[in-house]
Design goal:
With 319 residues, the protein is of the alpha/beta class. The chain is 45% helix and 18% strand. The N and C termini lie close together (8 Å).
């Protein structure tokens, strides 16, 4: 049965003021609270969220590969310890120009880099009790690393964020779950990403979950809803894959047509939103990361969260 998680820590509300929202998210029965790093550093934010909760999973949705993989493994194990074993690591690559311009990372050969990144994390996680992390690859080289203390458990679940088929295929092969970027149409999800993911699953030895980020707004007025959701697209419209994904639904050009907003988000009254999520994802997803509109004011965001929790409660109580 598909479960609903909630994205926490969006810009517009200071993280220090998120306490009541986090509490209400837990009370709504959220499957997980997901913390990205567009607005905050994900491991620090995940630690903050985990300290205020007791039940939901805490998932980085997503952590980028800007850190060395040994550091990522250590950070993940720290959050896992703080949360009492509720943490799961979501990893993503970032658009090419973010890699080059913001972090000085060569974005070439991302699938090879991510494969190595995940392998080093798993080796570093287990580097204790007489074992060390030793790895020689194209992008990462580690020799003789050993942890000072063992992690809380033998392995951390790792989800890979995917926008295009290559990463979806790699997710199926090596990860514990794929987390599809919210920038998708149903055609892109089912005709492009799912076949690639299934191919990867057939190659691998794990049983990875299927999940997706979804922009959701409970607002009966479609004109008002689209106006509130459009700012969420701003930071992605210059990313090449945005146009590739949009074209899968028949949308060409930079204009955010009503149909494109409708195809990549879910909005309407409460019943309509719940119904759309079940119809679009109920037969495919193990869980969804529901995300309110981005780039909106604090009061608007706070109201959007209140309505989102009603969606979460409905979805997670469904038989």
């Amino acid at each position: 049965m598909m479960k609903a998680a909630v994205a926490i820590g969006l810009a517009g509300i200071p993280l220090s003021k998120y306490g009541p929202i986090i509490s209400e998210a837990e009370q709504s029965g959220a499957y997980a609270l997901c913390v990205g790093e567009a607005a905050h550093e994900t491991f620090a934010a995940a630690s903050f969220v985990s300290a205020l909760t007791t039940k939901p999973r805490i998932i980085s949705g997503i952590a980028t590969w800007a850190r060395p993989p040994v550091t990522t493994a250590l950070a993940a194990s720290t959050v896992d310890e703080i949360s009492g074993g509720r943490y799961e690591l979501g990893l993503g690559t970032m658009p090419e120009h973010w890699n080059r311009d913001h972090y000085g990372i060569d974005p070439a050969r991302p699938l090879v880099r991510m494969r190595e990144y995940v392998e080093v994390i798993r080796l570093a996680w287990k580097a204790h009790g007489g074992f060390s992390c030793d790895f020689a690859g194209e992008f990462y080289n580690v020799a003789g690393y050993r942890r000072m203390i063992p992690p809380l458990r033998d392995e951390i679940p790792i989800h890979l964020a995917a926008t295009r088929p290559g990463m979806a295929r790699l997710s199926g092969e090596i990860s514990d779950g794929v987390l599809v970027n919210w920038l998708h149409t149903q055609e892109w999800l089912h005709e492009v990403l799912e076949p690639a993911f299934a191919e990867g699953v057939a190659r691998g030895s794990r049983s990875p979950q299927r999940s997706a980020m979804v922009r959701v707004l409970v607002e009966p007025d479609p004109v008002k809803a689209r106006d509130l959701l459009r700012p969420s697209f701003a930071m992605y419209q210059q990313v090449p894959y945005f146009h590739e994904v949009a074209a899968s639904g028949g949308f060409v050009g930079a204009d955010l047509a009503d149909g494109l907003v409708d195809a990549m988000t879910v909005h309407g009254d409460l019943d309509s939103v719940v119904s759309q999520l079940q119809e679009r994802y109920g037969k495919w997803a193990d869980w969804l990361e529901l995300t309110p509109p981005g780039a909106v004011g604090g009061s608007v965001l706070a109201t959007a969260y209140q309505e989102l929790f009603r969606v979460v409660a409905r979805l997670n109580s469904a038989p």
